[in-house]
Amino acid sequence: MDENKELTRGERLRKDLAYERKNGYDRVEPEELEAMEAYCTGYRQFLDAGKTERECVDRAVALAEAAGFRAYQRGMELKPGDKIYQANRGKALMLAVIGREKLDQGVCIGAAHIDSPRLDLKQNPLYEADELGFFKTHYYGGIRKYQWVTIPLELHGVIVLKNGQSVRVSVGNGEGDPLFTIDDLLPHLASDQSKKPLHEAISGESLNILIGSRPLRDDEGKDRVKISILELLNRKYGMSEEDFISAELCAVPAFPARDVGFDRSLIGAYGHDDRVCAYASLAALLQVTMPRRTAVCMLADKEEIGSEGVSGMQSAAFDAFMADLCAGQNVPLRACYEKSFCLSADVTAAYDPNFAEVYEKRNSAFVNYGMGLCKYTGSRGKSGASDASAEVVAYARRVLDEAGVIWQMAELGKVDQGGGGTVAAYMARRNIDTLDAGVPVLSMHSPFETVGKLDCYMTFKGMKAMYEA
Ligand code: MN
Ligand code: MN
What we know:
With 469 residues, the chain is an alpha/beta fold. It has helices at residues 9-17, 32-49, 53-66, 198-201, 224-237, 272-286, 317-327, 333-337, 390-402, 424-428, 453-468; strands spanning 70-71, 83-88, 92-97, 108-113, 118-129, 132-140, 153-160, 166-171, 209-212, 247-253, 258-260, 266-269, 295-300, 341-345, 348-349, 371-374, 378-379, 407-409, 419-420, 433-438, 440-442, 449-452. The strands form four sheets. It has a nine-stranded mixed beta sheet with strand order 1-2-3-13-4-14-20-16-18, sandwiched between helices. A six-stranded antiparallel beta sheet has the order 8-7-10-5-6-9, with helices on one face.
């Protein structure tokens, strides 16, 4: 259309007054697409290196140290521009770039979580049934159980022996490693199972992982497969069966992160929720040099089970870290919190045309429409949501627009269709203005979730803009 052509009244009113959403690919600068690809390559590597919260912490620390961050000790002298991190028990991580202004001006926080739904081993997991070896599991987070059978699984975690020695376990993502799986009925014999509702067809107690089948030779005792597996575990990890009691082992999907689609515009992987926002928050912070206000990145554990526990967002570990930083400047923590701002960076549901009935299209987030801002989450009348104020949303709009970030508003789904929560409520409880924002995801909480590259990159760009605002 000719730019100089005079608009009719209707055209002008529509242009000036109506809110029109546009696909991000019609808005993004072509030269940004290269940066987007490079960013997404780094993100895929982060996913492949971090299948558990512990592995994500390790990877994040390595990236941070390479970017000049150093481990923070209580009482350390800090000056503007200093870059620090502190891990909480190896399962959560806090990082900061000290700002030019004092902490009584507040900090800007990007808070995401690095735990993802998975199958944890029970504390007495190993058994043999009819000459097959299995691990009993207890699922972690909101999974749809039927999605976790007959897929390849890896095993990750730690075994802490009685003497306190911690042994890392990672089986399945190394070259030539064996994998594990959970079996399901063949259709030929599934006539009863097939009549059950989806959530009953596969029970939690049937999610038993197949781990071996070869019996101990020249032996007449019982459980020869199990004993044979114990011998292998003892050789590899120095453990006995009782050591499972103090182990944290989990089975995760054995899919590496891959491009999806002929146009490679999407990424399919396990753990986008919420590593896609965790990586964005982290990668953005690593590029921050001398912000006005101190920039803080929080990578939390335990979000998928309610942010509980010593490594979850409800833990005082975050307050202790912030109080230590404040103490260095003689600023009361409460004075810092009340002027702070937090983007609770967590994924949201992407509108899925295959399941259009659960979405309300006007308020849903779309793939490729950019970072999704979510004023409220919750369920049954916003219950459990922190519900950001209009002022906070206006602030975020302004910062993102000024930085050229492509963003959209997001609501999880239709009213009363379900719902969900994030760490936002726990940040808001600390008297910190908080807004949810993140990447829209297809098939959230499944073993292979899908996101749009443009949305990943815009979330990174949005986090950076927030830290530097
Ligand atoms: Mn999440
Ligand atoms: Mn989740």
